[in-house]
Each structure stands twice: as C-alpha cells, then as structure tokens.
Amino acid sequence: MDILAIAAVAPVIPVLTIERLADAVPLARALVKGGLPVLEITLRTATAMAALEAIAREVPEAVVGVGTVLEAAHVEQIQRLGAKFAVSPGCTPALVAATRVAALPFLPGVQTVSEAMVLAEQGYRVLKFFPADTAGGVAWLKAVGAPLAGLRFCPTGGIGADTAQAYLSLPNRRLHRRVLGGAASRSRCPGLATDRASGCRSLET
User: Fold this and answer.
1) How far apart are CA 164 and CA 155, in angstroms?
2) Along the 205 residues of the chain, how does pLDDT read in single tens digits?
3) Taking the model in full, what pTM does it have?
C-alpha cells in the first residue's frame, strides 16, 4: 500500500502523541472503531516506539505509521516495529534514500511550492503541508490547486474544529489532526474508558 492508497482509507489521519504506554492500544482501538483506521504516532515521547509496537501487534486493523521522523536511522527501526508508513515535517536526501531502500511509504513535509516541485520530480504525489496554519493554510492550498494539480496535501499544524471543515472541503487535501490530552468526543471515540484517556479532542469533524 502506497501513501496515496493509505490517505484514501480515511479523510482524517489522527496524529497521536502518546505519553503513557497503557493508553496506546485503547486509544487506537477507539479511533478505529470511530472510523479512523489510519494512525500516525509521533516520535516526541519516550513511549512512542513501544506504543507503535503495541498498536501494530494488538490492533492489526489499524494502519499505523510514525511521524516526526527526522533521521534516516529511525526508518529501519520503525519498520521493524510494525510501521506501515513514515511522516516527516520536512525532507532530506537521507530520508528519501532510507525509505526507498526499506520500501516504506513516506509522506515528506513541505512549506513552499518549490519544495513541492522538487519532491514531485522525485515521484512524490502526496505531501505533508506543515505548519499549515502559519504557512498559508486553506488559502495556500487553494492557490496551488491549479498549478500543482497532480499533488495532494496532508495539512498539519494549527488546524482546529473551527477550520477543519474548510480544509476538508478542498479537493487537494487529506487532513491531519492532532490527538492529545483533553476532553474526548465519545461519539467519535466510543471505546475510550474515560474522557482523559490520552485524548481524542475535536475529532467531531
């Protein structure tokens, strides 16, 4: 499954920053049950790798990937633990090479048209737009829609409940949403034991 196929599975990709390992599997199960089977675990906590391994093992129906991949050395490790794709806020030649050697689907980050064009020349058709809100947001995606018609973007960063629908209405996007601690939406995450179980904030969209 390539990135385009993965992005097509669900309109929203929750971005998980997991602080407690005990939350990992219940959270993943709740999100899958709520119709969000594609999950991205960020490498921002000490439990991230263990959470990846646990979710990949215990929630096989989830398509779990890893975000905040900054080093080529991470690629082999996350793939061995069960990651189905890798995501980075930017892109380096080393990351491109490592993910290609591993045959691991890769979602590189861009902020400018030139960066998008460089990656398009290398065969990438789905890109992470980061940080979306401060880099132009919906207006930027609308502006590049015609000249970069062959590309699709996963906007991430600064997207809240008040702006999510505007992103979802664009034809050239797949939406990333962060999932952090806070009040959970049980209608979207019915499997969460409590409203504080690592989050699910603002997933109504």
Assistant:
1) 10
2) 799 899 888 878 999 999 999 999 999 999 999 999 999 999 999 999 999 999 999 999 999 999 999 999 999 999 999 999 999 999 999 999 999 999 999 999 999 999 999 999 999 999 999 999 999 999 999 999 999 999 999 999 888 888 888 888 888 765 555 543 322 333 334 333 333 333 333 332 2
3) 0.83
Instruction: CATH number for 3-179: choose from 3.90.940.20, 3.40.50.20, 3.20.20.70, 3.40.50.450.
Output: 3.20.20.70
Cα dihedral 10, 39, 82, 107 sign? positive
Domain boundaries, the chain: 3-179
Q: Which residues are catalytic?
A: 40, 128
Q: Residue 86: beta bridge partners?
A: 66, 106
